[in-house]
């Protein structure tokens, strides 16, 4: 009789599979990621894999859903908060989102790397769609609240929500370029790049919402300092 | 001795290949489009195909380049015009672009259909990148001109250009939904959808450029009437 040691719980095994698949996707295009490769990276048996997933496409979908769920958790929390001032509520949304992103900077850097693998285009489009599907209702609700209270003046709720999300999506490639500059020794330029990007996003957000500049506030730029610290590995 | 009749010129043959490949892409994902299928649809020989292209990937790239070149021609023409007023210049850019799009509505509808084929995601991303690469310098130049003359007040030239192009990219799915409504008998709703979309884009453009509402003007909404005419097939 074989005694299996260190046997994982089903939940831990599923997480190990998703972690392994996500990791593999950051170093190779999806078409090269096999069930055998995932199983080896996760340290589980093929039987264990097929207990949770019916195919590699099935894992792909689960990886995408998990990334999208993670990205939206902060926004949902801020929507539930009780501020009655729409400006404070929107600022809180941006600050919570920034804090979540900073504490998951390693995972976001991995997604940016993933996006650069040629064959991963369908995956990235799916991730964008899943993320939009979750984030659009939140941003629309925040805008709608501000409109209903005659605080925001937007041209078109739907288009404005699309554009606000588009601004946010382009944030991290800039932050990671800033980190590369700092790691290469030019911390001052990296710092200026982050400062300008944060200010630009704050300015565009207020303009799109029909507010005075600096009404809605982004997270303080100093929060991003760890990104430029060569001694600080991304989590 | 075999006499070949109706022999195409090399240029005509190349165009026939690109036309056939573009047509096939509107009804099936790229992975199902074969050299044999393109050759049959273009009415040429395999030898004729390989005279111009080394592989199906090679045709794909040429199809994308041609679509992107077409889409940018109107913008380039308006950049070359002599208006010294940045507002008139930007309006002219939008109006020229709208005219080009309307006279190529059939091709644009085909691209929107192409985008809905699952396997075409990499192609669509490539098309978006190629189109951005051509359009961004034009829009940045138009914005830069308006800033230099202290007429436009934008938050950030690069981000603003990205957002202005993003607004335009989302235009046609709305127009085609409006046409479907009209073809189904509800012309009034289709007309309202187009009117609201054009007004929203005009409003957002002026806001992003830091102008009064209705300073920069989009093409007159009446220009879009043919889209709603059931008797008028898309070209």
Q: What is the element layout, followed by pairings?
A:
Two copies of one chain form a homodimer.
Chain A: H1 10-25, H2 35-42, H3 46-52, H4 56-79, H5 86-103, H6 105-115, H7 121-148, H8 157-169, H9 171-183, H10 187-209
Task: Describe this structure in a few short sentences.
The structure is a homodimer of 235-residue chains. Chain A is mostly helical and 235 residues long.
Descriptive account of the structure:
2 copies of one chain form a homodimer. Chain A is an all-alpha fold. Chain A folds into 2 domains: 9-54, Orthogonal Bundle (Arc Repressor Mutant, subunit A), CATH 1.10.10.60; 63-228, Orthogonal Bundle (Tetracycline Repressor, domain 2). Residues 1-5 of chain A have low confidence and may be disordered. The first copy, chain A, is globular and about 60 Å long. Chain A has 10 helices and no strands. In chain A, helix 1 (10-25) crosses helix 2 and helix 1 crosses helix 4. Chain A binds chain B through residues 118-119, 121-122, 124-125, 155-156, 159-160, 162-163, 166-167, 170, 196, 200-201, 203-204, 207-208, 210, and chain B through 118-119, 121-122, 124-125, 155-156, 159-160, 162-163, 166-167, 170, 196, 200-201, 203-204, 207-208, 210.
């Amino acid at each position: 009789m074989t005694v299996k040691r260190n046997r994982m719980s089903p939940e831990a095994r599923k997480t190990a599979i998703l972690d392994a698949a996500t990791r593999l996707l950051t170093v190779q295009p999806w078409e090269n990621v096999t069930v055998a490769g995932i199983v080896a990276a996760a340290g589980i048996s093929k039987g264990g894999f097929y207990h949770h997933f019916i195919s590699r496409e099935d894992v792909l979908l689960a990886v995408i859903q998990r990334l999208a769920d993670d990205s939206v958790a902060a926004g949902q929390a801020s929507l539930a908060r009780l501020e009655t001032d729409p400006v404070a509520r929107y600022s809180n949304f941006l600050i919570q989102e920034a804090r979540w992103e900073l504490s998951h900077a390693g995972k976001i850097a991995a997604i940016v790397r993933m996006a650069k693998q040629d064959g991963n285009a369908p995956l990235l489009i799916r991730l964008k769609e899943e993320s939009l599907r979750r984030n659009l209702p939140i941003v629309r609700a925040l805008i709608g609240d501000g409109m209903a209270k005659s605080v925001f003046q937007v041209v078109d709720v739907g288009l404005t929500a699309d554009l606000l999300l588009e601004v946010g999506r382009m944030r991290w490639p800039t932050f990671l370029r800033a980190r590369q500059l700092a790691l290469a020794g030019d911390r001052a330029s990296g710092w200026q790049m982050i400062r300008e990007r944060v200010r630009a996003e704050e300015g565009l957000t207020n303009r799109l919402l029909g507010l005075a500049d600096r009404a809605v506030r982004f997270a303080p730029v100093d929060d991003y300092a760890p990104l430029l610290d060569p001694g600080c590995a991304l989590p």
